[in-house]
Here is the input.
Amino acid sequence: MKILRLSLRPTTAEAVMPLASYRAGFHSFIKKAVQEYKPILYRYHFETPIPRVKPYTFSVLFEKSTVEGDQIRFQSLYFRFVSIDPEFMVAVHNLAASLYRRNYQFGSTLLKLHALHYEPLRQVTTSPARFRTLSPVLIRSHHNERHYLVPACENFDGDPEFAEALRFNVQQVTRALAPAFDTSTLQLEPERCYRTVIKYDKNGTILKFPGFRGTFLLRGSPPLLNFLAQVGLGARRSQGFGMIIPA
Here is the structure.
């Protein structure tokens, strides 16, 4: 198992991106990659009246960055992508390779790809296993899809129904992508987690999602835990949330 990592820099000394919408630019990059590689795969996942559960997740890590109001100013960034479906990995790799040392418009910012690497994704063989987040994890309430629940954190006491909501979120993914997995014993035990509120621009409306970052233990079958490392944990995984790796 491997993670594709792209190193990108702005075409100027530094650049800014909107905090609430930068993920959309990278999601568009993934969609373009799939469309160019295999149009039938693109139509199945992105041109259907019924939303499909996506088999991937990604994260964006800004380097030498500062937050200024609703924007982030940075000098470089890492884009990481992983999928349980090899065709998605090939699609994103192919588009990235074609852009090596060239410019590409990510949302409102022009970036140049400087390096393409693969990072090993450690195989989980025992349970519990320690994980850390590469992007915030969002756990949608099992009673109200507009609400998000957070476990006990360094800065938050925790929502009482989090454990049940966690299993509900994972069940939604496994039913679509890997129905043989048993999620009934899945448990998350926070170690050093921090509650955070993420702003997300949805068609011009700014939404706020409570989520969490940090390190935690996951209890479940090792195959299930390895699956979650390849598709992400929680809700909105294909929009740049829920990327976790064994710590």
Notes: Residues 22-37 form the longest helix (16 residues). The mean pLDDT is 96. The CA atoms of residues 14 and 165 lie 40 Å apart. The helical segments are 22-37, 39-46, 86-98, 162-177, 222-231.
